[in-house]
Design a protein that fits this description.
The chain is α/β, with parallel strands linked by helices. The chain has one domain. The protein contains nine helices and seven strands. It has helices at residues 9-22, 38-47, 59-69, 101-114, 152-157, 160-167, 187-217, 229-241, 253-262, and strands spanning 2-6, 29-33, 85-91, 116-117, 122-127, 149-151, 247-249. The protein has a five-stranded mixed beta sheet with strand order 2-1-3-5-4. Strands 6-7 form a two-stranded antiparallel ribbon. The protein is globular, with a radius of gyration of 18 Å. The protein starts with a strand and ends in an 8-residue tail after the last helix. 35% of the residues are buried.
Length: 270
């Protein structure tokens, strides 16, 4: 069983599209929505002394405990030995006012170092600044995607979700990412829609993986292997966040996860 842990409902919606299009034969995926941010999860893990290595912690048990506190029994009957891989998806949220930026960066660094292995504690993927970065594009493929950044100040003054709506070629429409089948659609039309959405996801994979490589090595091209999440975070801090402008390079975790999971074969159709 593969466990996917998401910050919120939007993440789950995007993943369901990925699962439908790229994991059609897999029936052992299990989805869990956390409904809180990465800094909340940090606090819970820290309370278990997990992040300082003082105590060996079972990620499934900790998540089960957190969810049960919220009245969610999603993981109640799932045992650790049933889960072969764990993937977590959370937002950077550098506009978060619950702590200083320095404190939140330190917490996220600890989380990335803890969640480094999908077959161990789990593998954490980060959206910069939020999951809506997936839609921060002009018409796909967007050759300028590697240039896009957003400042912390702007994210604090105007919700990033609103910025995405105003900036995106697609506005609030998600049909370019989520397969929508209508009663009048025949087999050929469904196939046409499926191919269109798949190709758009492949464009997003190339764009995000290339941008991650640019963030880390100044080369806007698909690397042989995906840059690790710790390396991306360290370079985001050094080149964007910890500068006078205090900005972040817009980047989405789902395409990077897909390249990490499937390798180069996922983009062969382009």
């Amino acid at each position: 069983m593969i466990l996917f842990v998401f910050e919120g409902r939007d993440d789950k919606t995007y993943f369901e599209s990925i699962k439908q299009l790229f994991f059609p034969e897999k029936s052992d995926t299990f989805v869990c929505t956390y409904n809180s941010n990465i800094y909340s999860l940090y606090s819970k893990l820290n309370a278990h002394d997990a992040l300082n290595g003082l105590l060996e912690v079972d990620t499934v048990s900790v998540l089960r405990e957190i969810l049960l506190e919220k009245g969610d029994n999603t993981l109640e009957n799932i045992r650790e030995d049933e889960v072969s891989e764990i993937y977590l998806f959370f937002d950077y949220d550098f506009q978060e006012r619950g702590g200083t930026l320095e404190e939140n960066n330190r917490k996220l660094q600890a989380m990335l170092n803890f969640f480094m292995d999908e077959t161990g504690n789990g593998l954490l993927f980060i959206n910069y600044p939020m999951v809506e970065s997936l839609r921060y594009t002009k018409e796909l493929p967007d050759k300028d995607y590697w240039k896009y950044t957003v400042t912390r100040k702007r994210c604090q003054e105007e919700r990033f979700k609103h910025q995405v709506y105003e900036f995106s070629f697609y506005g609030g429409n998600l049909e370019h990412l989520i397969l929508t089948v209508k009663p009048a659609d025949d087999v050929d039309r469904i196939r046409e829609k499926t191919d269109m959405v798949k190709i758009n996801w492949c464009h997003l994979i190339v764009m995000n993986v290339s941008k991650a490589n640019y963030i880390c090595s100044n080369k806007n091209e698909v690397p042989d292997e995906v840059n690790c999440q710790v390396e991306i975070f360290d370079n985001q801090l050094a080149k964007y966040v910890e500068t006078e402008e205090c900005k972040v390079a817009i980047l989405n975790a789902f395409p990077i996860f897909m390249f990490n999971y499937f390798g180069r074969k996922i983009i062969e159709r382009l």
